[in-house]
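Weekly modeling sync, notes
Attendees: S.R. (lead), two postdocs, one rotation student

Agenda item 3: backlog of single-chain predictions. S.R. asked that every request posted to the team notebook include the full sequence so nobody has to chase files. The rotation student volunteered to paste the first one in as an example of the format we agreed on. Action items at the bottom.

Example entry:
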Amino acid sequence: MEEYNYICPHCFTSVSALIDTTIKEQKYIEDCERCCNPVEIKLRLDSRNKVSEFSADRLDA
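Predicted structure, as returned to the notebook:
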């Protein structure tokens, strides 16, 4: 697991997520720990299991 920080698209607060580095492509919904609104997380890992692409989007957009 690796900690990754991003900005919540609802409240614009820095939020941390734990990334499972054994799964190369991921897409899931996680509630913001600050405002509790749902955020769709999409990410891709490179060959060294580091985050190469990341997005955190509102579901109502």
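Discussion: group reviewed the output briefly. The longest strand covers residues 38-45.
Action items: rotation student to repeat for the remaining queue; S.R. to check formatting next week.
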